[in-house]
Task: structure prediction
Amino acid sequence: RAVAALQTLWSRPTVEHMRALLGHFRPDVVHVHNTLPLLSPSIYWACAAAGVPVVQTLHNFRLACPQAMFLRDGRICEDCLGRLPLPAVQHGCYRASRPQTAVLAASVVLHRTLGTWRHKVTRYIALNHFCRSKFIEAGLPAQRLVVKPNFVEAPALPTQAVGAPRSGLLFVGRLSAEKGTACLSEALCLSPSLSLRLIGRGVDSTRFEGLPNVQLLGEQARSVVFAEMRRALVLVVPSIWYETFGLVVAEAFASGLPVIASRIGALAELVRDGDTGLLFTPGDAADLARVLAWAQAHPAEMARMGRAARREYEAHYAPQSNLLQLQAVYRDAMACTATGASSFGSQH
Result:
């Protein structure tokens, strides 16, 4: 455990391995998605020494919050944002373990002190403007933070699905507290006329067992998920935490399906209220029940929003348009590194 903890802070094997890979493969750019736990941020130093630009996608808030979600005891918590993450250690926010949380907190503090976050990553990719603003509050350099959403490779929307009648509410995702399961189950109890099909599993599945207006489908193949999205009236995303992106929203948009989401974090940015879906007060079951009932009573309006959602997908979240955005980030990172690149890096 002690060795693993030290390797989380700085991994000498990672540095040696990356040096060998960089020398053999001679990349134009290295794109990092995750270093936790055993790669460690030492990977950035190996790339910098070789003069290779690094692009890091920020899939969660780990650099600002050891628990990675800004969530504690079912509520948004920003106690560690922009400061030493001592509150996280005090509460044992990572896996309910103070020692494990302390290791992650130490890694964040160490690499803040060394300047890793400010100088060794050429470009950070935030998945939306909300997340970008949070990372700037956390101390990441604004000039290195760009916004590029995730993409979804979705099956073609069948011609017969466009304009076809839709019905019922749909939930797709993990059944756990941060996904707003308590709020959703209470809203369904408040409005028994609502009808929900639920895809997913998790510790909170018991909240929905026995509810007459809920059909539990369990985990399903991706093809089944998209088939359900093409027949549903609306997708429900009642999360109570700062979703960094919410891939299920892009999947819904690809299916011409509008989304009802919590007015919180990135969700309030991804879903335009009254255009690609509807927003409600996070954690407010009565407000969610009201919005769901309105959607069920106005299928024509929801169909209009579904068409707008499909256009949004094609413009921002389809593979072709998203690839152009990613290539632009790579070119920018390479250009910024070119003047100070190492001998082999400058040849690219």
Q: What stands out?
A: The radius of gyration is 22 Å. Residues 341-348 have pLDDT under 50 and may be disordered.
